[in-house]
Amino acid sequence: MERSREPRLGDVAARAGVSVATVSRVLNNRGYLSQATRERVSQAIEELDYRPNQVARSLLSRRTGTVGLILPTVALPFFGEVAVAVENELAERGLRLLLCNSFGRADREREHLDLLVRNRVDGIISGAHNDPLAEYDTIRQPAVTIDRELAPHIPNVRADNEAGGRLATQHLLERGARRPVFLTSRSHERNLRERGYCAVLAAAGIEPIVVTAEFHTPEPERSQRVHGALDALAEVVDAVFATDDLLAATALEWAALRGRRVPDELRVIGFDGTATMRSALPGLTTIQQPIAEICRTAVAVLAERIGTPDAAAASSDAVAAVELPVTLVAGRTT
Amino acid sequence: MERSREPRLGDVAARAGVSVATVSRVLNNRGYLSQATRERVSQAIEELDYRPNQVARSLLSRRTGTVGLILPTVALPFFGEVAVAVENELAERGLRLLLCNSFGRADREREHLDLLVRNRVDGIISGAHNDPLAEYDTIRQPAVTIDRELAPHIPNVRADNEAGGRLATQHLLERGARRPVFLTSRSHERNLRERGYCAVLAAAGIEPIVVTAEFHTPEPERSQRVHGALDALAEVVDAVFATDDLLAATALEWAALRGRRVPDELRVIGFDGTATMRSALPGLTTIQQPIAEICRTAVAVLAERIGTPDAAAASSDAVAAVELPVTLVAGRTT
DNA sequence: CTGAAAGCGCTAACAT
DNA sequence: ATGTTAGCGCTTTCAG
């Protein structure tokens, strides 16, 4: 195990009997090189197993080739898939991924943001789930959000949540539901899935019922809270539209424990449709988000704003928001 | 939106009317400083919202404060939880996480490894699932693996898989199973869960039956393959020990489709016990891995090998492998 | 207590 | 076609 230090440009140069500039030229394939030196240098590089120090390159070029991704937690399948998709798209452009899990905590996000700036990432993608941080305004690197309203100048890429909410609710009604309950993390004005749900119910003349269970409540409290709420609604509820598939699973579990037959006595539809949840609960009806497309778009927009090393200032059509279409995946629970 | 360039040490120095060296001293709280300058500098830093360029610091200190984590894919709950736990432990030590998803592909892992070295990460944690890469021998940065035999000099932290295999199989037999099938990704000598399964069956005088379904086979092929195998075994199988909870879910789905009552006609036990799968299938009996502890240990061992900036060469008791105990979580499927 | 200057590993003028 | 040199932004001797 060679504990010698990492070889540098100088080591390669010495071995090939040329100057560091020449080695650099070979490395970056720039300027005129004789075939002979090119080969000598390449061989020296190979022999030493030399790999350019990206840190030094970054200092000089003022680009690190790194993008920071802030998510609540990749332990959840949706964000895990987002992380994977984002990493793939970044890799396609020669970019690396610095991962940050904020757990919905503003202080965590603030710390991460500060660290990303110190590390001079070329860009930031945020899908955090806490209230917007003012710090994003003071930041110089381009940013893009995934399913998050952050600031007017920060593009937001997401699924068409409102359409998803409508689609889900409509589906439940078509299946015969008379009183669908909406299960969500937080209920508020800008909850688009909730808006879609309410819109469809309003059109049908049905009073909405919204049950909330905070996103980051640890188990088993969160399930308990949901079960308790459903117990209280036992008389009226005959269907559940959950804002994510995990919450839908909790509703299914409630049905199992209370002996309610699904879908006859309780219809359940979820949201997200991640591969993991499709495997875990293949029978669950859900609204599938186009995760790969969302991430592809987000990275494309970000890359555009980062610009290539040379390309001074790209056209930048100032994308404000992109909404991608969702799909209903019909299962056995509705 | 200020598009001015990022402030540097010089900007702070100018504003505070001191030299860059003094600012650096304030920043790192080193050497003697008069209270007056200390305050003047601090104020300038604040006013400019100055954040030290970590790239420059890294070049000088030859430490990036970054650790590379290579996993098959954080889209799967187990690896997602690993990523989160690792990030938490790293953050505790002021380290950042560069995430790499290899999808079980050696070429992907090789590329990632190369990139990590070029970026001069301080250490590498690998939980990739393909065959060992020879490249790990030529690498200068300390490495640790999670649930992976890589090389003699690379410590491996993992759950006690063999005990888990025994525990699961024992449990099935105790519940009355007479012919438990083992469902896994790849069957081989060093598959410790399989070894545990076989050991218990041997002691009971039962012939093992191992069904494989490659890890990275895309859905729905993978499920199809499992269903087909179970159909072929329909006459004999009365229990399934799956190597992970997702595969257990597939077995449950098979039972649902074929009208087999669980647990009476088919007992199912999984492996991993991630929070997500506990939520998705609260009734599933499973062998729970101590993910947080595994990651805490892995990071501790790695941090030890990285050493503090000063601490020349730590004691390094040359940890070779650590096995952490698993737990049986009894549910309704056995 | 503070400043000047060297240098981390690399690239990009500018020479030759 | 190749070498010399000046930084990238920071920390750290070494002077003063």
Question: What features would you highlight for this structure?
Answer:
6-stranded mixed sheet; elongated; DNA-binding; 3 domains; 434 Repressor (Amino-terminal Domain); 12 helices; 6-stranded parallel sheet; Rossmann fold; homodimer; 334 residues
Summed up:
The structure is a homodimer of 334-residue chains. With 334 residues, chain A is of the alpha/beta class.
Descriptive notes:
Chain A has 334 residues and is α/β, with parallel strands linked by helices. Chain A has three domains: 44 residues, lambda repressor-like DNA-binding domains (434 Repressor (Amino-terminal Domain)); 127 residues, Rossmann fold; 128 residues, Response regulator (Rossmann fold, 3-Layer(aba) Sandwich). Chain A has twelve helices and twelve strands. Chain A has a six-stranded parallel sheet, with helices on both faces. In chain A, helix 2 crosses helix 3, helix 5 packs across helix 12 and helix 9 packs across helix 10. Chain A is elongated and about 85 Å long. In chain A, 46% of the residues are buried. Chains A and B meet through helix 4, helix 5, strand 2, helix 6 and helix 10 of A and helix 4, helix 5, strand 2, helix 6 and helix 10 of B. Chain A binds a DNA duplex (16 and 16 nucleotides) through helix 2 and helix 4.
